[in-house]
Amino acid sequence: MKIAVASDHAGFILKQGIVAYLAENDIEHKDFGCGPGESVDYVDYGARAAEAVLNGQFERAILICGTGMGMSMVANKFRGIRATACWSEYTAEMSRRHNDSNCLTLGGRVIALPEALKIFQVWLKTEFDGGRHQRRIDKLKAIEDRNFVY
Ligand code: RB5
Fold first, then answer.
1. What pTM did the predictor assign?
2. Which of 13, 14, 105, 136 is the 20 to 30 A CA-CA neighbour of 87?
3. 5 C-beta closer than 6 A to ligand 1
């Protein structure tokens, strides 16, 4: 599993902890920024990581801003990205089982590293349930294609 990672300044410290975890566990990843000590726009960094997933370089992304919400908004602008802002192990599990999330977003100002790592681990290992949930994903795709099926 190759993971694209990005944050803005508000997510930078939490991102450092996530990146350290990825390195310690030999999980292939790339940090698309931002770097330390700069105030940046989450849109720029979330977009870089989302594009890296869409062009096939990475399978999933983890994006961190202050709340997880801005990163979710930018990532979901990209066709094929299903970004979910998760704040608990339960939401992380359901984001995979029901939503087939390929982009986890977290809030560096609302979640501490130990909880973020638990969320990340659940999100990483949980499989998509498929079945009726695939039908719903297909409807999301139809909206992306402006081809409403209902
Ligand atoms: C930055 O101050 C903050 O607005 C940003 O990180 C994020 O929380 C936006 O959704």
1. 0.96
2. 136
3. no
pLDDT digits (tens, 9 = 90+) for 43-71: 999 999 999 999 999 999 999 999 999 99
Q: Does domain 2-144 bear CATH number 3.40.1400.10? A: yes
Q: How far is CA 18 from CA 14, 114, 137, 143, in A?
A: 6, 10, 28, 33
Domain residue ranges of the chain, discontinuous segments joined by +:
2-144
Nearest-CA residue for ligand 1 atom 3 is: 66
Q: Which residues are catalytic?
A: 65, 98
Biggest CA-to-CA distance, the chain: 48
* Contact criterion met (CB below 8 Å) for 61 and 6: yes
| Beta pairing class for 83-85 and 60-65 | unpaired
Q: Output the residue whose Cα is nearest ligand 1's atom 8.
A: 66
